[in-house]
């Protein structure tokens, strides 16, 4: 079997996965995975032992399925806290005085470094201030902050007192903030007066204030002064507090002892219609899944690594940035602003100057940086040891560009996919397995991943099917916030007894795994189901478009027809000739039946805060229908861009 990349023997020998295989006595990954799926409780016992997961009180039972798979309970009787595992355990060790967090502002001359000891002291001071305000166990506290060191201080301070973190995307307007605050019944919000965005001071507190006018549960707002912004920040007496005034100097607050399955993080993901879904991670679920099982064991994150994933606290990656390096005793790089400002090479400069060793990317970031050509070649990226990608399905052109120009055709791309509801991975890459473009090495350990038809029967290699989980895993959301029935209907009731994730997937004849897009985005042409990613890959391969989104619409004769929305490369002329060229590319690449009904050339595509393109919104705009829940849109102005293109076409 031909592979684009095969792991060097030395990398395999030194990987955390190989060490875990030796520790568990398993000969290879597939044997380990089979045992893990047969006995998920055994797997987690081994993960906890290997990674030294800490408890105040050891659990009585690893897994309780008395109420069935949807209601699985983990670490029954055990007590712990994310802060115990990510900060407190390093006290009185060599790690304590080492650097944990490196921060750089949009102006690179603004930089900070915090050791574990310094960072934990800041966490303790804020936690004491929150406690003085009457915030405690079980209270929901939202974080509406940009990429600052204090954003991560706030994350751990909330958890330290046993409250529940509700991350909010820092680009949200008042409406999505309001819906989440009210649905989660948040008691407090931690925010900043503003941040720098492309050289302009962007307010945050004033945006939040609009939402708070209709959010009666919020009793306290803690405001960090970003400094240097010259932004007016009105403060409401009795409700609003400056961070510097409530943080308790010299505070030495003990970390709250929590039941292992007490809620720790309430993170919302967009629903197709109606209100967004509140996913619940517990103090043990995220540590046991994404942090240890997925990223340390399979993803090979090591204590010597500096982790950098340019993201926002409002997405799953925010919690990953907080917990993965801190649990391992590694380091974290945090950057304010955007990857391509104040100059288009900023993203690469950050990696080179700070000597990043473990780089996370989304395909959207890569496509965005591709627009600037081979500027990446001007930077020394030799510090990189490992790369990881997630958030959406790749297409081949940006994957190859990243592999060739960033990985230098030598480093693996640890491709991961799971989701907010899963709290970890369903498919994962590893440094022990070969790679092909866009592929995943294997199903994640112990999650019961399978690819099935609509009756729940496994499909053959090379055939497309629904991605499912055959049993609960430790990371799965604990129902949906205040919505047990919606939880069952969304995931467990489509094929009774099986979690249906909503993605189409395939095990290729190369033995690797591929995600082909959301199953509700599937395009059926001439009786054949096709994932939009395959068609979008043909369009981006022309080199004429930076991004593409393909969706289907009803057709009176053919049943369904294809519409393409494309963002031309920087400097490219938008014209009828380009639209026709792209249409012809699909015909040549896929066949005459795939000729699109229309090719729209747009300035931007509507996407969620974690940069997933919302094809259902494009379809609704094209058909002049209600697009449903738009609260997760990071760029609502893109809808108007699409409407203008429609009128002009």
Quick structural summary:
This protein is α/β, with parallel strands linked by helices and 649 residues long. The strands form ten sheets. It has a seven-stranded mixed sheet, with helices on both faces. It has a five-stranded parallel sheet with strand order 7-6-8-11-12. Strands 24-25-26-27 form a four-stranded antiparallel sheet. Helix 12 (316-328) links the parallel strand 16 and strand 17.
Describe this structure in words.
Helix content is 31%, strand content 23%. The protein is α/β, with parallel strands linked by helices. The chain has a domain at 522-648: GMP Synthetase, Chain A, domain 3 (2-Layer Sandwich), CATH 3.30.300.30. The strands form ten sheets. Strands 5-4-17-16-18-19-20 form a seven-stranded mixed sheet, with helices on both faces. The protein is globular and about 70 Å long. It starts with 8 loop residues before the first helix and ends with a helix.
Features:
alpha/beta; seven-stranded mixed β-sheet; five-stranded parallel β-sheet; 20 helices; 32 strands
Strand order of the largest sheet: 5-4-17-16-18-19-20
Per CATH, the class of one domain reads Alpha Beta
CA radius of gyration is 24 Å
How would you describe the shape?
globular
- CATH third-level topology of one domain: GMP Synthetase, Chain A, domain 3
What's the architecture of one domain, going by CATH?
Answer: 2-Layer Sandwich
Helix content: 25-40%
Describe the SSE topology.
Elements: H1 9-14, H2 16-24, H3 29-38, H4 40-51, E1 61-64, E2 73-76, E3 79-80, H5 82-86, E4 99-104, E5 111-115, H6 116-132, E6 140-144, H7 149-160, E7 164-167, H8 174-184, E8 188-192, E9 194-197, E10 200-203, H9 205-212, E11 220-224, E12 240-242, H10 243-246, E13 258-259, E14 263-269, E15 277-282, H11 285-298, E16 306-309, H12 316-328, E17 331-335, H13 346-354, E18 358-361, H14 363-370, E19 386-389, H15 396-405, E20 413-415, E21 417-419, E22 424-428, E23 442-443, E24 449-452, E25 465-469, H16 484-492, E26 499-507, E27 513-518, E28 523-525, E29 528-530, H17 532-540, E30 545-555, E31 559-568, H18 576-590, E32 598-601, H19 615-622, H20 637-648
Parallel strand pairs: 4-17, 6-7, 6-8, 8-11, 11-12, 16-17, 16-18, 18-19, 19-20, 31-32
Antiparallel strand pairs: 1-2, 3-13, 4-5, 9-10, 14-15, 21-22, 22-23, 24-25, 25-26, 26-27, 28-29, 30-31
Helix pairs in contact: 3-4, 4-11, 6-7, 8-9, 11-12, 14-15, 19-20
